Amino acid sequence: MDFELTPEQRQVRDLFARFADQVDMTYVNRISPPARGRLTLANLKFAAIFAARIIYYIGLRSDYWRPFWRAARRALARGQVDMVFAMAFVGHHLIEFTREALRGEQNASFYSARRQQDASAPPLRKSA
């Protein structure tokens, strides 16, 4: 119910709802490259570790696990495992970037005129 959610929770829910819609509208039309050269032991190990970290940090520990699993379930039902990885990776970074910007730890935009002041970093030199 919307009246029980904070604006931040609604934004997270809407982000993963958009990903879920893209599973049906966009991802089904993607070109699938041949699998030759992609199935290596190193890649399988990386994928297993990446999947375990997604399940633990985003699927279990995050405060947005429910919208994530709702979107992931839709992609997994269509066999789009790589899209679950993409949703988790992009969604997590968008959410964390937004939270840092709201706390004032990060600029709201990379193009923002305001720069974060860091005492340990030397001042940047203007180029000629």
Structural account:
The protein is mostly helical and 128 residues long. It has a domain at 2-27 and 41-103. Helices cover 59% and strands 0% of the residues. The longest helix is centred in the last third of the chain and has 23 residues, at 81-103. It is globular and about 45 Å long. The mean pLDDT is 80.
What is the gist of this entry?
The chain has 128 residues and is mainly α.
Q: How do the SSEs run, as a string of H and E?
A: HHHH
Shape: globular
Helical content stands at 55-70%
Secondary-structure-derived class: mainly alpha
Radius of gyration: 19 Å
Strand content range: under 5%
* Average pLDDT rating: 80
Low-confidence stretches: none
Largest beta-sheet characterization: none
Compute the number of helices.
4
> Cα distance, first to last residue?
56 Å
Number of strands: 0
